[in-house]
Amino acid sequence: MCSHLHSRVAVSVAPSTFRALMTPVSAPRRSMVYVYRYSGLGCAFAGGVLVFMAGGWFLDRWLGLFPLFMVLGALVGATLSTVSIYRRLQIGQKSGDNQEGGGA
Description:
Elements: H1 2-12, H2 15-22, H3 30-63, H4 66-99
Helix pairs in contact: 3-4
């Protein structure tokens, strides 16, 4: 019974197809790692701007000076987010040099 079933399966599936189905899935490509890293940095930038803008909006509502602190919060958030992203990229670049053997 088992050999009869086994022969039917072997006939219906070509060896190359069977090998393709049984090979393990390879790790994500290196380029996808960069996509995830840089999209994460973009989300961090947007989050920083939105947090400071929202803080300025609440401060404006409390003090009655509607656009002043919201705009100021957006500018401060963009500045601090830019500095944060720059530092993260510099640290990543230095650690990448050390991993490739370029640093001490």
